[in-house]
Design a protein that fits this description.
Elements (H helix, E strand, L loop, with lengths): L7 E5 L4 E5 L9 E4 L2 E2 L2 E2 L3 E4 L11 E6 L10 H7 L5 E4 L31 H12 L2 H9 L2 E3 L21 H18 L17 E5 L3 E5 L15 E3 L14 H13 L4 E5 L9 E3 L2 E5 L7 H13 L5 E5 L5 E7 L9 E7 L10 H5 L8 E5 L3 E7 L3 E9 L9 E10 L6 E2 L1
Parallel strand pairs: 7-8, 8-9, 11-13, 13-16, 16-18
Antiparallel strand pairs: 1-2, 3-6, 4-5, 7-20, 10-11, 12-15, 14-15, 17-18, 17-19, 20-21, 21-22, 22-23
């Protein structure tokens, strides 16, 4: 249920203070503690923060970004470590849960440390139950209770690799939209979204813009609900002619215009595009061909070129892209022309690994770094990204788990990369 606090004193004697919420709602730039009461039960104390007022000078932002938490593939110890960080917020980039039936997505890396309940989620009841199952995890609970979360979805909150109204397996459109409506309703009920995102049947306005003072502005994208069908299928293969069609879209025309207009108008130091699938080109030499994962932006190169070309032509500085999906960590220069390594670097992309979702191709993916000159770093371990942002520089730390098969597994920072303001491209920190 959505709870909007009005005229309510939020207090906990152990914390030594309370905050009154007046009729205008929560105040900017403040810390809050809260509890919920329902049916005679009282929740543990949670903490949250509100962002500084838009336009206000801000000297530092610390946040984590994460994606791809598969219940069966591992324990959520990464969330426990995340909850122990000194952060202002968490950005979740999709695959908050997985829709598969119990045991349907066996992980060669880990087996299955625990099981989903029931079959593949297709109904509102099933999606609600799957969200409820994930919410029983104490480490996920701790991460939610520690910080405010900003979320967007990818495919598995509904169905693997769906595109707009097109299901992965050719389900009739009307039936799939009914399933999509159920998935979107359950997502809205279980994630921290505003009333403006309330679903209308199979439609939910998820893309939105969030400012953190004048330091950073986040454009949260939805690259599933409005995208064109993947060209020539959604697997790894050579690009066919359809992939070059400029009408092929990842975001839909309206969202793309909204994004470009927001980048033009932003007064923030750092312009952050938070989205789902890898934007950097990832060329895969196989069978004597240049092949690509056509579910990523590589399947929509004209749409990618419009965004990066806009950033370059308008000289929009300090554009950063945050990504999930691929179950591995990547740091890449986003180029004006990926076919020309010497072309201008337009922006920087940081891709976080998965919380637990399996990566059976980790060793093979490592071999792609030398043949993609714009890629600066790769790591196939599970984990999340941690960012510290100031007006002068952006630092991203790659946080990697020891394993995901033990609930108390350790984590370490395995790499740090820095982008200096006004100088696109990541360098070792």
């Amino acid at each position: 249920a959505k709870v909007v606090l009005r005229g309510t004193a939020i207090a906990d004697p152990a914390l030594g203070h309370s905050v009154h919420v007046d009729a205008t709602g929560l105040r900017p730039g403040r810390e809050y503690v809260y509890r919920f009461m329902a049916g005679g039960e009282v929740s543990p104390v949670g903490r949250t923060k509100t962002a500084p007022a838009a336009g206000r000078d801000v000297e530092r932002l610390r946040f984590a970004f994460a994606s791809c938490a598969h219940w069966e593939h591992g324990y959520f110890a990464a969330y426990r470590h995340l909850a122990g960080e000194d952060l202002d917020l968490v950005v979740h980039l999709g695959d908050y849960l997985y829709e598969y039936a119990a045991g349907a997505a066996y992980a060669p890396e880990t087996g299955a440390v625990r099981r989903h309940t029931g079959g593949e989620t297709t109904t509102l009841e099933a999606y609600r139950n799957r969200h409820a199952l994930y919410k029983t995890d104490p480490d996920l609970q701790a991460a939610h209770a520690a910080f405010p979360w900003v979320t967007t979805w990818d495919d598995h909150e509904t169905e693997n690799n769906y595109a707009g109204a097109i299901s992965e397996n050719g389900e009739p459109e009307a039936a799939f939209l009914e399933r999509r409506a159920a998935a979107y309703q359950a997502y809205y009920e279980h994630l921290p979204l505003r009333p403006s995102s309330m679903p209308q049947g199979p439609d939910l306005r998820l893309y939105r813009r969030l400012a953190y003072g004048n330091l950073a502005e986040f454009s949260m994208l939805d690259t599933r609900q409005y995208r064109s069908d993947q060209p020539c299928g959604d697997g790894v293969q050579a690009r066919c002619a359809a992939a070059q069609d400029p009408e092929r879209t990842m975001t839909g025309p309206e969202q793309e215009r909204w994004l470009l207009r927001g980048l033009d108008e932003s007064g923030a130091r750092w312009k952050v595009i938070a989205q789902q699938v890898m934007m950097a080109e990832l060329m895969i030499p196989r069978s004597g061909e240049r092949q690509f994962n056509l579910d990523q932006w590589d399947g929509y190169p004209a749409a990618r070129n419009r965004i990066l070309g806009h950033v370059m032509s308008r000289a929009i500085p300090n554009t950063m892209v945050l990504t999930g999906d691929i179950h591995s960590a990547w740091i890449s220069d986003l180029k004006a022309d990926f076919e020309e390594p010497a072309s201008a670097t337009v922006a920087t992309e940081f891709v976080t690994s998965s919380i637990t979702a399996d990566n059976p191709f980790a060793n093979q993916l490592r071999l792609l770094v030398p043949v993609n000159d714009h890629i600066r770093y790769y790591d196939g371990r599970h984990g999340y990204g941690r960012c510290e942002v100031t007006p002068e520089r952006w630092q991203t730390d790659v946080r990697a788990m020891e394993n995901v098969t033990e609930p108390d597994a350790a984590i370490e920072t395995v790499a740090s990369f820095v982008v200096e303001a006004g100088q696109p491209g990541a360098q070792r920190g």
